[in-house]
Amino acid sequence: MPLKSTITASLSSFAEPVRALIGVAGVALGVLLVLAPLSTQQIAVVTGIGLALAGIAAALLPTLDGFTRVSARVFGAVLFVLGTIIAVWPAGGAPWISFVVGASLIGHGVLQTVQVIRHGGDQRATSVIIALASIVFGVVALAWPVLTLTFFRLGVGAWFVFFGLQLVMAALYSGGRDPERPRGRVARWSRTIGASLALILAVAVALGSNWALGGVPLPQPGAFYAAPASVPAEPGKLIRSEQLREGVPRGADAWRILYTTTNADGSPAISSGTIVAPTARGDEPLPLLSVAHGTTGVAAKCAPSLSATPFADGAGAALEQLVVDNGWAAVTSDYIGLGTAGAHPYLIGEAEARNVLDAARAAREFSEVTVTNETVVWGHSQGGQGALWTGQLAASYAPDVTVQGVAAFAPAADLFGLAEVNKNDAVGKTVSAYIAATWSELYPQLNLESQLTPGSARGVEKIQNLCFNGKDVLGAILHGTQVPNQIFPDSLLDGEFGDLLRAQTPVGPFPAPVLVAQGSADPLVRPEQQQRWVEERCGAGAEIDYREFAGLDHLTLVAAESPLTPQLVEWTLARAAGEPATPNCDARP
Question: Where are the transmembrane segments (predicted)?
Fold first, then answer.
C-alpha cells in the first residue's frame, strides 16, 4: 500500500473515535447548559468549549477530495479559534456569543450542503434536511443577539446534544465499513426522522421569533393628518375633525381632530387628537377632562387616534365612567409627531403640556360638543409627567384655560432617576431607545447617535419603529432585551444630556390640587422615587394628595378593577364642583 494511503487510512481510523468522544462531550455540555444553574459567564465558557470541540470534529470530517478536506479544516480551525476565544474571554458578551453560534450553525449547514452536492451518498435528502435545520437555527440565533438564559440554554444546549448524538451515531454505524456502503434501513430512517423533526423545530422557532419581534401592521396616518395649505398662526385652533367609529365606548360619540399648537421652542406646529362625549347631551357646556396619554411609541403610526382602542390608555375605565355616567367630555392630544409630521417630543414636558392645553382650546371650537373653559387634567406614566407639566405651564402659556385639578398616575416625574435605575431593564432600554431616537432630532447638539453604547444602535433602530401598544409592546420589549448594554453610557448621563433629563422634572407651582397615584409594586416607576419627588414638592409648598396602592404595578394601577378607578372619578367630580382639596403632605413621615 502506498505510504500516502497508509497515512490517510491511519488518520481516518484515529478520527472516528475522536469524533465519537467529541460527540459524547457535546451531549454532556448540552445537558449542562440546559440543566445546570450556570452564571452568564459560565454559560459562555461552556458554549466556547462546545464550539471549539465542534471545530475539531469538523476538521476531522471524512472527506473524499481535496476541496472538501480543505473546506472542512478551514471551517474547523475558525470554529476552534472562536470557541477558544469565548471560553477564555467569557466577558465578550452575549452578542459576540450569539454571532459566533449563529455563524457557526450557518457555516455547518453550508459545509454539509457542499459535501452532499459533491459526494452524494445514500442519504442525500436527509443530509440536506440536517443542513437546512442548522442554517435556520443559525439565522434564529443571529436574530436574538442577547438571548435570555432559558432560550440560550435550550437553543444552544439542544444543538450540542443533537450535534453530539449525530457524531456518536455516525461512529456506531460506520465502524470499519466502507463509507459509501448503504446504511441499514433502521439507521437510515431514524436519521431521516430525527433530521426532519429538527427542521420542523427550527422553522417553528424561526416563525415564532418573527411573530414576536416583528410587531403588527398598523394603519399609517392618511390625508386627515396632513397639514393644510394654510395653517392658522394662533395655537389651539381647530383645523378639521371626523367621526370615529372604532373603539368608542357604548353610550358615547367620538371624533378625531387636527389642531394648531407649538413646539417647546415656541415654533408653530400641528397635532392630532380625539374628543369623546356622551351621546345624550344637551345645550349646556359639558365639564372637560384633558388627557395626557402614556407612552405609545414615537413613530407617526403610534398615535392613539389611529388605534383600534383610542380611549383605552391609562385610566380608560374611569374615563368611560366620567363620560357616559357623569356627562363629561374628554379631549386627548396625540402629541406632535404621532399622527402628524415631525419628531415626537418624547418625555419633553413643556412640549407635551403645550399640546394638551391647545387640545383643550381646540375642543372649545368644536361645533358638535360645547365644553367649559375649565378642565381637569389626567395622565399616566409619560402622560403623568405631561399632566404635571400641563398644570405647571397653564398660567403662563394658556391663561384662558382654567385647570381645576391635576391627576398623575405613576408619572415619570424624575426622568433622570428613571434613566439611572432602569437603564439595564428591558422596558428601561425600550424607553431609552425611544428617547435616543427622538432626542437625536430634537437636540442635534448632543450627537446622541454616535455616543450610544456599543451594540445599541441596531436595537434603537428596531425599537423606534415599533409602537408601545397592542402586540407591538411585546416586540418592542423583546428588542429591548436584545440590546446588549444600557443604551446611554454613564458618561453621557453626567453631561449635557443628563442636565436635559433633569430639566424635564415638573417642579410647579401648580395652579390646582394635585393627585399622585402610585403602585407599590411598580417595576418601572419605582415607589421610592415617586415618594422622594412628592416629599420635595410638599416641602416646596405644593398641595399634593399622594396615594399608594399596595401590590399594584405600572399597569394594574390604572386597570378597571383597580381601587384607583372609583377614587379617581370621585376626586375629579370634587375638583369640578369646587370642593376643598385633600392634600396629605402633613401626614407623610
Answer: 20-38, 44-63, 70-90, 96-114, 126-145, 151-173, 193-213
